[in-house]
Amino acid sequence: MIAALLDHLWQSSLFAAAIAAVMPLLRKQSASLRFALWFAASMKFLVPFAGLVALGRLMLHAVSPELAAPLLSAIRPAAASFLLAAPLVTPAPAHIPAAELAAIVWGVGLAAIALLCLSRWLELHGALRSASPVATNAPVPVKSASSFLEPGLVGIWRPVILLPHGLSPQMTPDEMDAILAHELCHLRRRDNLLAALHMVVEGLFWFHPLVWWIGGRLVEERERACDESVVESGIRPLVYAEGILKICRFYVQSPLACASGVSGADLEMRLGAIMAREPIIDLHPAKGTLLALGGALALLLPLAAGMLGTAPISVLATRVATVLAAPPLAAPVLAPAPPMRKTRTAHPVPTQETMIVPSPHQIVARVDTDVGIIVNTTPAFAAETAAAEEPMVCRRPQQLPGSHLSGPMVCLHQSDWDALKKRNLVLLPDGRTVVAGLERRRSIDSPGCPLPNIIGGATTGMASTFSICY
């Protein structure tokens, strides 16, 4: 859990650092664009890349019941012996008091921030209840409060413009219109709702200083965006600046961060930008393309990683079931025996290891590759084998010819191994093919006699018998 949290923190911090590196290139663009980028950096703390990776995995198709049925029927016999075994007991993880202590500290910090925001909201709500309405042409209610609060937009779903008591007589109509235009710009931009979302980020990640720094950038850019909107609406910059200065004479900052005020952020820089009235340059298409590409990559790369990474169990089950549900392959055509080699080097006799198993029906061959599982439950030489209760002898996996991989472990009754040895036959490492030994080949009259095969399936065992040419 802590490792996942640390991964999320450094990924979100890296995302915010990338946006901060882009900001110097956007100084001449609108403040609304810069605000949108800082808000994306804030929301990244609520959207971990691990969630996008998991979403990419969920986009894969789910397992089909029709395809899963053959899979279940095939694995039940093999899993029977494992179900009877004693369950593995995993020891409980060691107690980590540091993790619990960190969770307690985080919870205390979250509760403290929540109580602070609640107390400020109650203070602002009390001022709003005691406020008196003001007659204006604004599309939202405008009220005057007796407390020394700056003009601001209060509320998210039912917003109200709250003005300090006695502000109207001290300002000209043009200055009052400029102040109201500023607050209405906050209303159109939904700044209170966006500020509340960032407050959630600050509450959850209060221990991260980068979150608080992003909050300051959001307040700065949203006020500049409203200043640009007021000046572009036709209000003279001097009138607007004088109105802001008059408010500062009895200004007390709003007690709630999600209440948009007129005098927020760096006032000196704001007034300088208002009076300078520098033209806003439209975003160059190349810069816009790079920003869009960066945002798309930030979303699509985790999704692609989830889709191309480790597949979930359901997808793996579907793939295995698809293979099992495929029609069986046709019987192989026997090829003629290779010509006899003129060599005196004899093949080494494979070593055998006796292993007593409870029942032949619970034997599952161990394979190291994708070679078919050989389960020998039916003797190959019915006339020469002993009773089914006799012990079985298993040969260890042998290296396949021309490969570094090993074949399966083959288990036969001792009588079957004796019959092979008596007839001078050798079972190849693949566990399926039986060829004549060196002495047997010398006695074969026809070199073109087809080689016999032993072919077994995962559940049917060895159904075919030997076909020996004399």
For this entry, give a set of tags:
2 domains, 5-stranded mixed β-sheet, 12 strands, elongated, 470 residues, alpha+beta, 3-stranded antiparallel β-sheet
Q: What is the β-strand count? A: 12
Strand order of the largest sheet: 1-2-4-3-5
Structural class: alpha+beta
The helix content, as a percent range, equals 40-55%
Mean pLDDT: 74
Largest sheet: 5 strands, mixed
Helices and strands, in N-to-C order?
A: HHHHHEEEEHHHHEHHHEEEHEEHEE
How many discrete domains? 2
Portion in strands = 5-15%
Ends apart, CA distance between termini: 71 Å
Q: Which regions contain 5 or more consecutive residues with pLDDT less than 50?
A: 81-86, 352-375, 377-387, 445-470
Helical stretch tally:
14
Shape, principal axes of CA atoms: elongated
Global Rg: 40 Å
What does this 3D model show about the protein?
The protein is an alpha+beta fold and 470 residues long. It has two domains: 23-79 and 98-300, no CATH class; 337-470, no CATH class. The protein has helices at 2-22, 31-43, 49-58, 65-84, 97-129, 173-189, 191-204, 209-232, 237-248, 267-276, 285-308, 313-325, 414-422, 438-443, and strands at residues 132-133, 142-145, 152-154, 160-164, 260-261, 353-354, 392-395, 410-413, 425-427, 434-436, 456-457, 461-462. Strands 1-2-4-3-5 form a five-stranded mixed beta sheet, sandwiched between helices. The chain has a three-stranded antiparallel beta sheet with strand order 6-7-8. It has a two-stranded antiparallel sheet with strand order 9-10. Helix 3 crosses helix 11 (285-308). The radius of gyration is 40 Å and the shape is elongated. The two termini are 71 Å apart. The model is unreliable at 81-86, 352-375, 377-387 and 445-470 (pLDDT under 50).
